[in-house]
Amino acid sequence: MTILVTGSTGFIGSHLCKALLAQGREVRAFHRPNSPLAALQGLELEHAVGDITRPGDLAAAIRGVEAVFHTAAFVGRRDPRLIYQISVEGTRNVLEAARAAGAQRVVHTSSVAALGVPLEQDRRKDALAMRMDESHSWNIPPERWPYGYHKHLAELEVRQAVAAGLDAVIVNPALVIGAGDLNRIAGDILVRVAKGGIPVVIEGGLNLVHIDDVVRGHLAALEHGKTGERYILGNENVTHAQYLQMAAAAAGVRAPALVLPAALVRSLRRPATLAGKVIYSREHLLQTPY
Q1: Distance CA 258, CA 18 (A)
Q2: What is the C-alpha separation between 128 and 136, in angstroms, rounded?
Q3: pTM above 0.90, yes or no
Q4: Which residues, 6 or more positions from 104, have their beta carbon under 8 angstroms from its beta carbon?
Q5: CA separation (Å) from 254 to 197, 202, 232?
Q6: CA 24/CA 46 separation, integer angstroms
Q7: Is 3.40.190.170 the CATH number for 2-177+208-236?
Q8: How much of the chain is in helix, strand and coil states, percent to nearest 5?
Q9: pLDDT tens-digit series, residues 102-155
């Protein structure tokens, strides 16, 4: 089986390429011409150079493959039009190319961000008590969390493709951690803690999952996922404070001692001014794309 992996030079994509090769599969790694290739160094795979915003590039790359892992995503919070072009229109292009090429299955990498936030009645004082599952729907204004909103829109593209006859499955990783995060998607916070760059933390919580578990979840979705379904890939719920305490302990530095109430930080007129020094909300912490 030949499998195409978009976003192949990224954290999840590169680990997925390695796992597929270990299974004896033929891997075609799709990436842009200027993508750094360090994460794929030494791997015996086929390179397909192009951009998911250009349908012609995808048509050539997907030709002859049996399955597609779509892990490519937008990193950053710049021009919303650019985010939409890559995250939403790019996903649509991948799905259309896969359907035209007769790919047997597409596994779309989304994020828990696409679920929205816990319902108001579920927001208890204990951050670890807040729960969401795969049935949760997007429920906040788009401008409050652009990354999550565009992940939600990309999932809608997948559901429309499934309705049109494409065999596709969605996976929703939580905050992915582990070795090989060369672009510091989730690792940036860990580096900042090690350097003493986060003096305070905001109350709240998140779910952590190791990259190895995320890869296993992707492979399980390929083999056993139900068409049109979404699957959360997560592991342990921790508070922000616990997460940074674990990071500080691993780095041998002092953990942030001051915990600010989330309601107070949200009330600040310009919370983004604190972004370089603190984690100012649960949404900010989870805005890293996977």
Answers
A1: 41
A2: 17
A3: no
A4: 66, 67, 167
A5: 11, 17, 33
A6: 14
A7: no
A8: 45, 20, 40
A9: 999 999 999 999 999 887 555 555 655 667 899 999 999 998 888 899 999 999
Name the DSSP letter for residue 213: H
**Beta strands 205-210 and 278-279, pairing class:** unpaired
Q: Which helix (H) or strand (E) holds 210?
A: strand 205-210
Which residue ranges make up each domain of the chain?
2-177+208-236
> What separation in angstroms does the CA of 85 have from each of 51, 79, 202, 228, 280?
11, 10, 32, 23, 27
Q: How does DSSP assign 221-282, residue by residue?
A: HHHHPPTT-EEEE--EEEEHHHHHHHHHHHHTSPPP-EEE-HHHHHHSS-GGGGTTTEE--H
d(CA 191, CA 193): 5
- How far is residue 100's CA from residue 105's CA, in Å, rounded to a whole number? 12
- The model's pLDDT over 20-38, given as tens digits with 9 standing for 90+, comes to 999 999 999 999 999 999 9
Residue 2 tokens, joined? 């030949």
Cβ pair 7, 73 in contact under 8 A: yes
pLDDT at residue 200 is higher than 90: no
Q: Which of 40, 161, 215 is closest to 48 using CA atoms?
A: 40
The DSSP letter of residue 199 is: -
107, β-bridge pairs = 69, 169
